[in-house]
Amino acid sequence: MASPSGYEVIVDRISHDLPFYRSFLKNAALGGAQVINNPFWWSADDKFFNYALASKLGVAVPKTVLLPHKFFPAQINSQSLRNLEFPLDWRRIFEYVGFPAFLKPHDGGGWRDVYHVHNPGEFFGAYEQTRDLCMTLQAAVNFKEYFRCYVVGQTEVRIMPYDPRLPHEQRYVQDPPVYDKKLLARVEQDALTLCRALGYDLNTVEFAVEDGIPYAIDFMNPAPDADLNSVGQQNFEWIVDSVARLAIRKAQASQSASPPQMNWSALLQGTTSAENAPTPSKPAVPAKRKTPSKKTAKTPK
User: Fold this and answer.
1) In sequence order, which residues have a C-beta less than 8 Å from that of residue 268 and are 6 or more positions away?
2) Residue 75's pLDDT is what?
3) In CATH, what number does 142-291 get?
4) What's CA 144's distance to the chain center, in Å?
5) Residues near 87 by Cβ (< 8 Å), separated by ≥ 6?
6) 204 close to 219: Cβ distance less than 8 angstroms
7) For the chain, does the N or the C end have fewer beta carbons within 10 angstroms?
8) How many angstroms separate the CA atoms of 103 and 116, rounded?
9) Could you tell me the pTM of the whole model?
10) Per-residue pLDDT tens for 64-81?
11) pLDDT tens digits, one per residue of 19-37
12) What residue segments make up the domains of the chain, in order of their start?
């Protein structure tokens, strides 16, 4: 308790799955270690908040609603829920979001418990299976292009063409077509805007593009996939090199830097704002060739 960890910098790749490590990392941060990513904010963050923040920042996001748990914990009773509207106005909810849509956890990951629903009947069938998870319902994007972006240090962006309809190990497109430069520039800027506002030094941001508009649909991935077998050799080498350089910079700066601010005001309004962030580097985009774009399909997220 309250003992220094012995490290200047710690790169966290596991605490989202193991609470023991999350508590250890908070204690390490208290002792002066810089943790990538900030364990205090990561513990408090959720995807529904992210969508709301994106809308405030001017980043396009699909229409999304937060839903009550289908099944509440046993200790919750009708008195606990006396301020919850019941029955819910499902018709109004469906009219707002529209179909097709995606029912997915408000703070989940790894594509777990995600349902693609096309009508109220399919929605209620899926909602019945969500147990005590808190879920969101989000409008599907009829996408033509799809990108997954590594963002490192709130300055470097690696835009990776991605096809979420394929098996996991084949989703990173190795031979992509040529994309509009203005579209790529907007994707890069939106990815930086989101990560700076959230304070993440390592994240992936996913965009589904419909009618030239990149919709941010997932950007709470502070321990993103970096497996050589799924991301490919070039992406793997880029992320390892970029994170290593980030960790070295933080370690070198830690000798003279003041302790990071861990309060919510600093996270959301001060030191992590876009105005105070470093100038972004030129985005790294894989080599492309001119090929026809894939046919329009529904996004599975």
Assistant:
1) 197
2) 86
3) 3.30.470.20
4) 20
5) none
6) yes
7) N
8) 7
9) 0.84
10) 999 999 998 888 887 888
11) 999 999 999 999 999 999 9
12) 63-139, 142-291
The 3-state secondary structure of the chain, one letter per residue? CCCCCCCCEEECCCCCCCHHHHHHHHHHHHCCCEEECCHHHHHHCCHHHHHHHHHHHCCCCCCEEEECCCCCCCCCCCCCCCCCCCCCCHHHHHHHHCCCEEEEECCCCCCCCCEEECCHHHHHHHHCCCCCCCEEEEECCEECEEEEEEEECCCEEEEEEECCCCCHHHCECCCCCCCCHHHHHHHHHHHHHHHHHHCCCEEEEEEEEECCEEEEEECCCCCCCCCHHHHCHHHHHHHHHHHHHHHHHHHHHCCCCCCCCCCHHHHHCCCCCHHHCCCCCCCECCCCCCCCCCCCEECCC
Q: How far apart are CA 109 and CA 125, in angstroms?
A: 21
Q: Encoding tokens for residue 39?
A: 């364990």
**Which CATH number is 63-139's, of 1.10.10.10, 3.30.1490.20, 2.60.120.380, 3.20.20.70?**
3.30.1490.20
- Tell me which range, 37-46, 102-111, 136-145, is most confidently predicted by mean pLDDT: 136-145
The encoded tokens of residue 162 equal 């991605």
